[in-house]
Design a protein that fits this description.
With 101 residues, the chain is mostly helical. It has 4 helices and no strands.
Amino acid sequence: MTLYYTPYPIKSYRNDLTSSLAGRMTARHRHFIPFLLVFGGVYLANAWVCDDAYITFRSIDNLVNGLGPVWNAGERVQAFTHPLWFLLRISAKLTSRFGPS
């Protein structure tokens, strides 16, 4: 067994960090962690679907059904606000059974 001389004491910083975090975490904080996980999961699952997305999905559905890229049949108004996303979703709708709407 070889002993090495160090001018300073050797400490394990990882143990200090975990023990200090565990010591500072109270019961109130421990109940907040599952809430954050559930909230984060719900947020990520619904982050991309908003009213603008539903307008695009309906416009795509109308276009595929022969009514044109409009919100209401017979109106000649561009309903979507993002043409590139609209074209990408149209290609997904036309090439698969699992497109939007």
